[in-house]
Structure formats: C-alpha cells, structure tokens
Predict the 3D structure of the following.
Amino acid sequence: MNIQIQATTPFTDQRPGTSGLRKAVTVFQQPHYLENFVQSMFDSLSGVAGSTLALGGDGRYHNKTAIQTILRMAAANGVARVIVGRDGILSTPAASCVIRKRRTLGGLILSASHNPGGPHGDFGVKFNAANGGPAPEALTEAFFARSKTIDSYRILAADDVDLSQDRELALGAMTIEVIDPVVDYAGLMAEIFDLDAIRRLFAGNFRMVFDAMHAVTGPYATEILERRLGAPAGTVINGVPLEDFGGHHPDPNLVHAAELVARLAAPGGPDFGAASDGDGDRNMILGANFYVSPSDSLAVLAANAHHVPRYAAGLPGVARSMPTSQAVDRVAAALGIRCYETPTGWKFFGSLLDAGLISLCGEESFGTGSDHVREKDGLWAVLMWLNIVAARGLSVEQIIREHWQIYGRTFYGRHDYEGIDSNAAAALIAELRDGLAGLPGRDLADRRIATADDFAYTDPVDGSRSDHQGIRLVFEDGARIVYRLSGTGTAGATLRVYLESHEPDPRRHNLDAATALADLAAAAAAHAGILRHTGRAAPDVVT
Ligand code: VG1
Ligand code: CO
C-alpha cells in the first residue's frame, strides 16, 4: 500500500454553511482544496480508523472525481469499509437511510442541493453523523477550525476504482461495497406507507407527473412510482440524472419547475404534480392547477398523518423552522401536541427527532420530513400526499380548502434578493437589530407590532444555543415579517424576507398570496431600507 503524506497549506474560506461546504466547482478544483476539507473532517471525527462510512452524491459535475479522491483518502486514513452508491449516486435522504440502517460512523454526501451544477455551477460536501443527520454545529466548527491549521493530508496512490457494478472491491486495506442506491430507501418507504392504497389510485383514473429535474430522484421515482406502484410509464419526467441538470436550477418551485406547472395547469391535465431538487430532499406539491405552499403542506401532513400506517397512533410533536408559517402551530394546538420552532437547517430537527419529541417537521423552503430518516425527504413527502389522497378520496385542492376552512388560511411568501453585496447585507441586518427595542407598540402596514427580536434558540435536548438566527417582527394579529441572510449561497449574500398573515375569513381565501401580502411586503422592504442598502427595488425570486 502506497500511502502518501501530501504537504498542503490551509485555505481560509472554508467555513461550512447551513448544509456543509458549498462552493463553485472551480473552487473545489483548486489543488488540495477538497483534500484539505476531507482530511479536516477525518482529523476531527473520532473513530475513523476501522470505521464504516457511507458515501454518495447527487451525480452533479465533479461528483465522480471527488468520490475517487475521497475513497483514496479514506483508505489512507484507515477506514475499514466504505458503502458507496452505484456510480457514486445516493440522494441525501437515501444516504441518511443507509447510514442508519447499516449503522455506519456517518457519511459523506456530495451535493450543492438545489444550486445549479456543471463546470460553472456549484459543488458541495457535507458530513452526516451516525444518526443519519447533518453534522451538529460543534462538529462543523471543529472541521472549520482544523482546516485553518492543516498542513498535510493522507492519500493512497492508486488508480480510480470502477463503481458501475454492485459488488465488493479492495482499495489498499479498505473494502468498498458498491450498493444499489435505491433498494434500502425503497424498502424503507414500503414500511411507512399503505402502498396498496396508492396502487389502487394509479389503477384507477388518477394521474400524476413527477418532475425529477434531471437530478438524483429520477432513478428513485421511476423505481417507486412506476415500477412498484404501477403509475404509467412517463409519470416521471426529466428522470435521467445529468451532470449539469440540463442547464436548469434543480430547484422545485413555481419558477424553476415551469414545465411541470404548465402541465398541471392545462385543461384535462394530471390530478397531482410533484418535483424534487438536486439531491432529492426537497419537494413541491401541486394539485390540478393548484399550488400547495410548503408551509401549508406541513400543516396538512400534520393534520392527516394518522391516515398513514407509520403515524397511525398519532404524532408526539411537530417542529418547523422559524421562518416557516405558523399554519402547523394551529394544527398542533388542535391536536394537543407540542410544536417546536427551530433555526433554519435540518440539523436542529435531528436532536428533537432522536429524543422522540417530534415525528414530523418541515421548512418553508420545500422541505418536509419525519423520524424515518434524519434529513428532509422529497419522495417521502410525495408518498405522504399520495397516501392521504388515497385514504381520504379527496383531491389535493379539496384537502387544502378543507384545511383552510377549519384552521383559516395562512398567506405566505418569501422574497429573495440574491447576489447582493455582503457588507451591504450585513449592514442592513445590523441596522434592523439595533432598531428592535423601539418596535413593539409601533404600527407597520396598519398592524401593531407585538414583539421584535433576533431569534435565538436553545436546543431543549442538549442545551446548545444558537444566536442571530433571523430578525423577527410579530404583529398583534399573528402576522410576521422575518429577515435572514442565506447560509447556502456561493456568490455574495442573499437576503430572504419572509411574510405571513393569517386569514380566518373564508370569503378571502381565494385571494392570491401576493395580493394578500402586498401591504406587508411593501412595509417590510421600506422598514429594512432594502433599496437604500442594496440598490434593489424588487426581489429576484418570490416563492
Ligand atoms: C436554504 C433554505 C433552508 C434549507 C437549506 C438547505 O438555506 O432556506 O430552509 O434548510 O437551504 O436546503 P439558506 O440558509 O440559504 O436560507 V438544501 O435542499 O439546499 O440542502
Ligand atoms: Co436539497
């Protein structure tokens, strides 16, 4: 075995964000860049020597190269076994499933999620711990600290290994187990849902379209929806994963999944539509000519979870990220269960799920999940909806309208200002923070502000504290404005403004969200001085 100790110099820009280290492909292609970060991980984790790790990615450009580098480094660092998805493919939820099922030390997932791919797109690396969830902050900080002082890394001098067949291979003293990336995950889905009920749906007239956006869910959706559940061939569109996602943003929203939206809007179109993102953890749900906001989706799943076998006995509690609408809070109150409000990012749900305090959680950013894995899970959310539609015999629109009738409608919108100057963004947030104390009792958009704070969170299980998680203005009528800077962007800063208002009056439920939130949106932009700070008069993306 030819292990090389390669001298290196640390990079200074490697602080991992909300979802691991996410950078332009060109950054990852710099000599020693990926190696530095991976060695920093291995140096910070305990028990790497002799361990089993999971490894896979969403198949984007640089995935294949990075996998080979990581395998050689794992072998040189004494890892005993690496379980790799065939061709280096594992969706994020499938990786979480494999880590848990096979009790590995953890796993490395290669993805930049919904960011565009290709030579000029983005790449990323994240570490998931033994519970299958994103590394906790203490660990990512340890990776970062180590990357600032690292002076060498260990790598095996060896040829690339062929990952195209399911089998065991040797790389130095390490075993590589190449697995079918879909099988474990599909098996888990079969344990959760009433697949027969969904099969009967497809055996009737019910039709759906799943847009895999040329990203990782193509093989998963084709196997589960078309092969196992009997949906007609062609149900999955854009189902072949491409290294550049066909040049599109693999981001399931009304803007980027335009083909799907058009199909659902067409007269005589399908009953149900869904899309997922680059790494398969996000979901968008559509009915016939009807959009389901992710915050509403979480609330509806909470209210209807008992129709799904795994959750038939009820939910111990639910959680949402702070900027996610309070629609699910109303369901939790009606069910008499706890509702936790966590900072953005899935890792905060992990400790609540591990402790059994919650079994369902979600974010406004098209992310929903449960205690079956420790990541948000796009296809799982689709199957939740299908199971509920099948069990209730109602359409997506009927289920949502019934929900609004019972709980009122929570209008919701997110305005993103992308690629703005980082200093301007920081100044805007600092100014908002400084002005918080004077806000309660003041009026904005004809509503009275009840409370205003910079969201801080103390994990109820391990007591760890996270500060500065977003500026939050809560009005007396329950409406909210939230301001936050993105932790996943790779160019400049992205300011997100989240808006919500609750509407109990059914006569106003047909308003579109943009109209219902127009006053609040204008007030939010003016209050923060977005134009003054950033020069932007309007957001780039509204979801
Ligand atoms: C965004 C979303 C957040 C999500 C994160 C990772 O983060 O807002 O809700 O958890 O992406 O999702 P930010 O910091 O840019 O707002 V994924 O599917 O990109 O791993
Ligand atoms: Co994702």
The mean pLDDT is 95.
